[in-house]
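DATA SHEET
Item: assembly model
Revision: 1
Owner: S.N.
Input lines:
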Amino acid sequence: MGPEPERRIETVMTRRRFLGALALGGTALGGVALGGAALGGCSDPPDFVRKAGRRIERTLDPLDPTTAEGRGPEPAAFKPPAPSLAAPTHPDTLPLECDVCVVGGGAAGFAAAVVAARMGAHTILVEESFMLGGNTTRGLVNLDRVTYGGDVSLVAGLFREVLLDLEERGEAVYPSAATQFSVPYDADGLRRTLLEKALKAGVDIRLGAEMFQAAAEERRIAALWALEQGRLLEIRAQLFVDCTGDGHLGHLAGNGYWLGDRTHGQIQGTTLIFYAAPVDFDRLVAYAEEEGSQNTVHQVIGLRSFMKQAIKDGLIGGTPQRGLLINRTTKPGVVSISGSESYIDHLSPGAAARIATELQEQDFQIHAALKERVPGFEASGIVRLAERPYLREGRRLIGYKQLTAEEILQAVKPADSVARGWYPIDLHVAYTGGPVHLGQLRSGDWYGIPYACLVARDVDNLLMAGRCISVTHEALGSTRISQVSFALGQAAGVAAALALREEMRPADLEAELVRSEVQKQGGLV
Ligand SMILES: Cc1cc2nc3c(=O)[nH]c(=O)nc-3n(C[C@H](O)[C@H](O)[C@H](O)COP(=O)(O)OP(=O)(O)OC[C@H]3O[C@@H](n4cnc5c(N)ncnc54)[C@H](O)[C@@H]3O)c2cc1C
């Protein structure tokens, strides 16, 4: 055995952290089975609140997902909290401490980390890939429906700041009435901007670090572990934010979750976007118009007859979408194409390779058919496949409220709304035979997303943002998009920083405090 490597602790001792350290009571985590018993119902305030001697003024009511009154029921999809897990140990372990640890550096995680850091919290961001942005960069996703309805813009907060930076560099077309739904942008430019902003905010960014374990006791996450270049990072924080999209952290820490629709237990399908070039967009638009597609300045939505015929002729196999979404990027002649679809559950063991194979095959087939049959594509090739498929739906962590499709379609604006959504309910599911729209809001209208949907029900020091918040399967068809994920991340970052300042658990924080801070930062609530 070699010598024991030096264990370095990077920490800043604040009064908060001091109180937090008292709360953890120097817990020895090594080898201890922790977590487990999380569960349901309302508990006593956490130690750090008790020790600070603060009176809890307001506590969110817990949500019981197994009763009709508990905004459900979703019995087929409900998963109970996970069993307890043992903490890993290894001599090559780097212990880190911070105020806020955000896991997942997609749109939501980027925003949560930047905002928490800007508000003074020592923040660590753990991201498994080598870039920030998640679907918006790794997935080459379109920034679709950024403005909704005429010239009503719902671009705000940190997302707006990011778009303005991109526009200044010529890497995005800022949305306006003229651009309607689509915002052409350069995914690599976005990647650079997000990293620059997070570094400037002082976030301790851990790229290439995959979180794989969390230990919770007495309804609190005590630590989580990530693998960074073969080394264990053991991260302790006052507060954690799950922005993994799939609710990995909440799941490992023992928070309950829902998965899939109530009847079939199915989650939404997965798509792999690709870029093709050179494409003569004007000729493509002319053809698409004749075909009856809905086009906007930078986007072709449809080509349904083309797809129907290509599938019938055996040019495209598998379970692709019925139509295509083709968006201009900011690079001349380069378009992004979304049309493949796989209904293999990406959370099932060994699914990734099967999904990748199926989607890649469809993408190559779709492109070959376009090249053969659609004007504008004759000289084109595939110039880029997205690094990762777009995982539309994973675990939806149970919070203190569950947002429903009815509330979305009725454009409900709750008093504790901390972010706005407006996208139609766009469900990509096999049980309807493919993508369906369950409805959309009136032009220019919006719905509010309650703060209680961001607060984990079973783990007191956990917030969530992005795709894994507490919503129904159908509601996720609307809340899952990029702009909303940025806004939810911003709200979660604000809530984390305020909970630390107020020395409260997030469940006891007045939503009004979060709302007014988000507004102060230019966000819409
Ligand atoms: C085909 C397609 C169409 C879409 N259409 C639109 C659209 O038109 N308009 C729109 O606005 N949005 C659209 N979206 C959706 C949107 O891009 C995403 O849903 C949104 O960005 C989700 O953000 P997120 O931060 O919650 O999750 P993600 O982007 O999934 O980010 C999660 C991050 O967590 C990281 N992570 C996960 N697990 C771990 C772990 N254990 N350890 C460390 N890191 C981890 C991942 O690497 C990833 O970076 C579309 C996406 C696709 C691909």
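QC remark: The chain is about 30% helix and 20% strand.
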